Amino acid sequence: MKFKLPTEYDVLVVGSGHAGIEAALAAARMGCRTLMLTQNLDTIGQMSCNPAIGGLGKGHIVREIDAMGGAMGLNADATGIQFRMLNRSKGPSVRAPRVQCDKKAYQFRMKALLESADNLDVKQATVSQVTVDDRRAVGVETDLELRIAANAVVITSGTFLRGLLHVGGSRKPGGRMGDASSSLSENLRQLGFQVGRFKTGTPCRLNARSIDFSRCAIQIGDEPPPTFAFDPEEITSGQGREIFTLNSIRAGKFHVEQLPCWITATTTATHDIVRANLHRSPLYAGRIKGTGPRYCPSIEDKVVKFSTRASHQIFLEPEGCHTSEYYVNGISTSLPYDIQLQLVQSIPGLEQAEIMRPGYAVEYDYFPPTQLFPTLETKLISGLYFAGQVNGTSGYEEAAAQGLIAGANAALKVQALPPFILDRGEAYIGVLIDDLVTKGTEEPYRMFTSRAEDRLFLRHDNADQRLTGRAYTIQLISKSRHARFQQKMRLLELARSTAVETKFRGIPIAQLFKRPDFRMQGLPPEIFSCVPTAIWELVATDFKYEDYAARQREQNRQLERRIDQIIPDGLDYNNISGLRSETRQKLANMRPSSIRQAARISGITPADIAIISIWLSKNNLNHAHSR
Fold first, then answer.
1. Looking at residue 237, what is its pLDDT?
2. Rounded (5°) CA angle 231-237-243
């Protein structure tokens, strides 16, 4: 007999991964009575693969999430065990923070955060179907015949939808090793949604006591450690979760005891082992049908597709402060256990390594995201939203970003307010969602800086300037945080006006900032001390790159005017230098007849389009109109 839960909710979130967390917290912050349902309360926020947050492109997204009040960046700062700024030697627009986290501390701190949040309930249940009335989502039903009413539903089921795990010839249902799969996608298929199949994987975990670190190169974190949160002081705010908070702010400085990572590499023996056993790989034996991530290939794919390479770099990354488990970054695999052990022990430093958990592949259902509006609401069912890997993306960061936007828009719909949509020119999250809902994706989507037309402007360090004000208008940001942000903006304006109006050695400071050899510490003390150093650094970067950013915007405008350029039939894309192999492959297969058509192909970036358009113009193939 079916039972209806007495409580009715404004927003109901299905799933407790990174997308579900941000969706639930966003809706709750905006004043909606929110419920999160998860198959297992003990795995909320679990990092199924690498316990790391950020990286190239992804780090930008995390800072944007933080700028809008999201939890991911602050939680990574609180539980991080190694902090690095990638691409530090390159320009600010492509620098990106990355944090290796304590896996369990991250998970349990996030669980405590959810349980203590206002307007949010968290319950354990397996959702079997979405309840629909007149093409409108009105709640869900669980496998225990419990009905729960809600005005909006957000699905964030990750890899659990008909998840199937592969290790060698063995396979079993599951969305993650040790966890059950979900049959919810069958209900959604019956409602009329198109369903696709993707694949991802993870490497084995090793026992640290069996690793010879003396044969590996050490990789230490940056000092001072770069954080994600714009307000890192919030790490110690709130009650009841400090037990999982590893790091702190002391005397205004971020304090963390960093752990090293280690670097080794595969050998020719490793590759020989893989080649000799490809027939035992479910990927190459044809047992896996889903499309895998291009930019996170398995060791089988690396050996086959990069056959001329003698080795591939491997990173040994600790999973936490109080565990012996090490994540082996670089050898994702679904080969049988015995072969995994052989290939691991062929790697320097790992000759005596013991596998604590084997690597595996997982196939899962996803919903082609062209079925969504830019709000992430489905076109088919009003009040139903999809976020995360169910939309065909890969990565914690891309999932969390979608969760925040879906949760916010679900709350706005319930409150009968206008939607919250980010433009491509104001956020990487805007690029992410626009790519998904307009182009779809033929493989698990991963963010890269090259996907953004305005990447020189979309820096990680100015995400709050771009987004915090907008987030405040829909109550994603608290009044106290917004007040601190406004004070920062006043300091930035003071520094900018000072730089424009003040001369040093006869030259405006704004012009001096554009010189590569000029250091702001060389300013007179009375000028340098008028604002904090961090403010001067932001202002100096703005002036240094304003001409480049303006040039990029002009190039974008010119490209838009050339959007109807004809691409000659039979064009050999191998003749165009600078194109990625992925781009050449897709264009050769699709054979677009114009720049406009090429730009709509999934995986083709604005950088690719610019290269093609310039090449056509230089070779006098710049016809004005397409056929």
1. 63
2. 120
Residue 126 has a pLDDT of: 95
Give the C-alpha separation, 78 to 603, whole Å. 34
Encode pLDDT of 28-87 as tens digits: 999 999 999 999 999 999 999 999 999 999 999 999 999 999 999 999 999 999 999 999
Look at 22-31, 148-157, 261-270, 519-528 and tell me which has the smallest mean pLDDT.
519-528
The pLDDT tens digits for 453-494 are 999 999 999 999 999 999 999 999 999 999 999 999 999 999
d(CA 341, CA 337): 6
> Pairing mode, if any, of strands 3-4 and 146-155?
parallel
Q: Which two tokens stand for residue 160?
A: 């659990």
Strand, coil or helix: what is 385?
Answer: strand
> How does residue 622 score in pLDDT terms, banded at 50, 70 and 90?
low
d(CA 484, CA 451): 32
DSSP secondary-structure letter at 514? T
Which DSSP helix (H) or strand (E) runs through 299? helix 299-305
**Which tokens is 436 given?**
């998904």
Q: Is the CB of residue 171 less than 8 Å from the CB of residue 287? A: yes
Q: How far is CA 201 from CA 188, 340, 346, in A?
A: 25, 14, 21
Given a contact cutoff of 8 angstroms between Cβ atoms, the answer to whether 48 and 446 are in contact is no
Count CA atoms closer than 13 A to 614's CA, side-chain side: 12
CA-to-CA distance for 29 and 68, rounded, in angstroms?
11
Query: Which pLDDT tens digit goes with each residue over 175-200?
Result: 888 888 899 999 999 999 999 999 99
- Report the distance separating Cα 62 and Cα 228, nearest Å: 7
Q: Which residues pair with 393 in a beta bridge?
A: 445
> Token digits for 311?
């080795």
Q: Helices in 260-375 by DSSP H: which ranges? A: 268-276, 299-305, 337-344
Torsion-angle region of residue 567: left (phi > 0), alpha (psi -120 to 50) or beta? beta
* pLDDT the model gives residue 623: 55
Judge whether 93 and 458 are in contact, CB under 8 Å.
yes
Spacing of C-alpha 509 from chain mean position:
37
Are 602 and 440 a contacting pair, CB within 8 Å? Answer: yes
Which position has the higher pLDDT, 627 or 39? 39
Phi-psi region of 427 (alpha: psi -120 to 50; beta: other; left: phi over 0): beta
| Rounded CA separation 212/87 (Å) | 29
Tell me the pLDDT tens digit for each residue of 103-128.
999 999 999 999 999 999 999 999 99
The C-alpha atoms of residue 46 and residue 42 are separated, in whole angstroms, by 9
Is the CB of residue 45 less than 8 Å from the CB of residue 16?
A: yes
Crossing angle of the two packed helices 479-501 and 463-473, in degrees rounded to 10: 140
pTM of the model: 0.94
Rounded to the nearest 10 degrees, what angle do helices 533-561 and 606-618 cross at?
A: 50
| Rounded to 5°, angle at Cα 20 from 19 and 21 | 95
**CA pair distance 300, 557, nearest whole angstrom:** 43
Largest CA distance in the chain: 84
Cα separation, 177 vs 361, whole angstroms: 10
Rg (CA), the chain: 25
Q: Residue 133 is which amino acid?
A: D
Of 126, 156, 122, residue with least CA distance to 141: 126
Q: How many CA atoms lie within 13 A of 139 on its CB side?
A: 14
